[in-house]
Fold:
Amino acid sequence: MKHPPGGRRAAFPRFPDAPPPQSVAELETPAAVVDLDRLAHNLEAMATYSALHGLSLRPHVKTHKSPRIAAEQVRLGAVGLTCATTRELEVMADVSRDLLLAYPAIGSAKLARLMTLPRETRITVAVDSATAIEQLASTARVVDREIGVYIELDVGMKRVGVATAEQAVELARLVWRSPPLRYAGIAFYPGHIRERVSEQGPAIEQLNADLGRTIRALERQGLTPPVVSGGSTPAAWRMHEVEGLTEVRPGTYVYNDRVTAAIGACSWDDCALTVAATVISTSVPGQVVIDAGAKALGREPMRGAEGEGYGALLDRPELVVSRMSEEHGIIELGDSDWKPKIGDMVRVVPNHVCIVVHLFDEIHGVRNDMVETTWPVEARGRGPVRKD
Structure:
């Protein structure tokens, strides 16, 4: 998949407070390692694509969970950030004053925590039920705080979202009648579109038909959505074909992974994050054991794409982690000419990078096999952010 910008990769900024570089080979494994130049290329490519097509970019932070990367996304033109958890909101409130919670905020504890975000932060919440609207409105009234609301649509994922245009109209009306809530628009997640990018045409056409039906129904009732928000990394490069779309929310694109490469949403060379692991055993003929198992790679299958296993070697993508226990990854050699030795380091491209990031406390940024900087995964976990 070719996408802008072309030519030489951009360079992720160097950090003046970074410690002296060390070799990747010196890291204790398993470790999450990010190629800084690939990361910079990915960030700039999506920012450029969005700008060229007149789409507002509101990237999802669920993939990187890092204020450092979020700040770079904002610097490159993101209008705000998308979050899935209250902890992500708390962490990202230091980076952006415009945050979307793309997850139903249900329950008094979660809603109360939502309202403690800085008053200057503009908050929008995606909802798909009258209950969610009523709970949100009730809590917002207590603290006298305006909250934007997107009506969530189900466009094929069958996860959350209203199923019909009539339901969307009903909920939009309820928001209008529920100050201090503000009707901000509609949102959807086309996560069901996981074909190869070149084969997504029919699915995009169906999405246009379904989305158009809802937009027209809202317009007829005087409820034209100010924002139409959608998008995912697998379909990110075709979002300009979605009629009426104004805002995109990809997340995985910052690092990419084995799935996004397999469907053509990126090239293999755009996979920025790998799990560095060490060969710890070659005692069983025909296989290698590394020190990265389910607690480092996750256990996500290759959904919607060809391939097996739980990750592939960066420099030998034909070799996959075919079996795992908690701390062991098994690589079957087959007819490969690779002759690994105990102590060798490998770099594994995970199937689903978002899960992998959540399994690590910190990320190591590298250039040319040298660790230039390390940053914490500050938004991982569920607990509240503690301010010193």
In short: Confidence is low (pLDDT under 50) at residues 4-8. The longest helix spans residues 201-220.
